[in-house]
Amino acid sequence: MMYIIDTANLDDIKRCVEYYPVAGVTTNPTIISKENTDFLKLIKDIRAIIGPDMMLHVQVTASKCEDIVKEALLLKEAVGGNFYVKIPISPEGLKATSVLHNMGIKVTETAIFTQQQALIAGLAGADFVAPYVNRLDNIVSDGVQVVAEIVEMFKKHDIKTKVLAASFKTVEQIHKIAMSGCQSVTINPALFETLTYHPMTQYAIDDFNADWESIYGKKSIAEICEGK
Ligand code: E4P
Questions:
Q1: Structural domain of residue 204, as residue ranges?
Q2: Cα separation of 45 and 50, whole Å?
């Protein structure tokens, strides 16, 4: 299971990369525009923070195959490292996916809402497909079930494409996706941080500290071991 951070905010990326076992960063035009800054500098700064090995997924805005391919090549050249071009699924996007796949450029097919979109993207050569869980739930579909069926379908048909579940609003959605066998999720930093928090954990830590201090005062284990 891989956790990816869905943001272009440099402070959030720095914090998540420093503290958590994240596998990379995903962006889209909405996420990028929230930062309201120089686009090229922003994606290069993200790469500088995460280093060359972590995944960086950047989405194209072009809609015609040849323009998508051109943007993908320019983006790859600009950000380098472990790069994935995100392409929203469409006939032109699928054609571009095949072209880029044959050129050795890694593709994440995004804005996936159905199992058949995912299957066709996989057959076109996408490395990841990104189904939108919360947006499916919002239209009275079942995002978790759609993802679970994509995972099962890829297994049944021996398709190597991985599933990168996206668009989350709750911890429960993320947990159910993890239980489905989905290989990866991309989550905004605020929601990601809530995954590690539980009030009972904080009570337990407070109790440990109080019990320790009742006998050893403010001395730390390090200080005791060093004979201080
Ligand atoms: C990521 O690839 C998607 O663009 C993103 O997760 C969509 O999330 P949203 O539905 O919260 O905008």
A1: 198-228
A2: 9
Domain total in the chain: 2
With a Cβ cut-off of 6 Å, ligand 1 is lined by 6, 26, 28, 110, 130, 132, 134-135, 166-167, 186
Give the model's pLDDT for residue 94.
98
User: Which active-site residues does the annotation give?
Assistant: 86
Q: How many residues does the chain have?
A: 228
Whether residues 217 and 148 share a domain: the answer is no
pTM: 0.95
Question: What are 175-221's pLDDT values in tens digits?
Answer: 999 999 999 999 999 999 999 999 999 999 999 999 999 999 999 99
Burial of 188 (0-12, 13-18, 19+ CB in 10 A): middle
- The per-residue pLDDT of the chain, averaged, comes to 98
